[in-house]
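Let us practice reading a record.
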Amino acid sequence: MGKRSSFKRRKNDLYRTPWEAVPVLKRHLPALFRFAEPCAGNGKLVDHLRRIGGACAEAVDINPGRGDVGQGDALCWQPLQRPLRPLDFIITNPPWSREILHPLIMRCVQISPTWLLFDADWSHTQQARPYLRHCRKIVSVGRVKWIEGSKHTGKDNCAWHLFTAEGHGRTEFIGRA
């Protein structure tokens, strides 16, 4: 799945979010929160977030993997309008391919503060430069096991990245506990 892997990538970068990535994020969320998941796949991350106090307002995917995930392209998705209960966050494990990730960052931050789980190395690259002004926080996760039943973790370290629409000075980095 990563840049040091010879494995063929899964269609649409469909890698189910493992539980081990979620408790790290929990420390940076309120006890109860309302979220949308625009790259939901089979809803695994939705289930994990509900387990830690999240209420899912909407989950969509280009190829929905279960009945409560609607069909929708995250790059042109517009969340259902519910003015009495606005979203607290968009939270997703997006495709890591940059031609999707970068437009997704800009799309999502216009809707709500956005937590994205992807490779930690990204923030150290030139391609990240235009997006870092929107990155408020990077929370290190480390390597996770993306393939259920595998005995191996991925080869890339991961991090949760919090993006917001307004620009700011510095990005807060939280290392692994």
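A brief commentary: The chain is about 15% helix and 25% strand.
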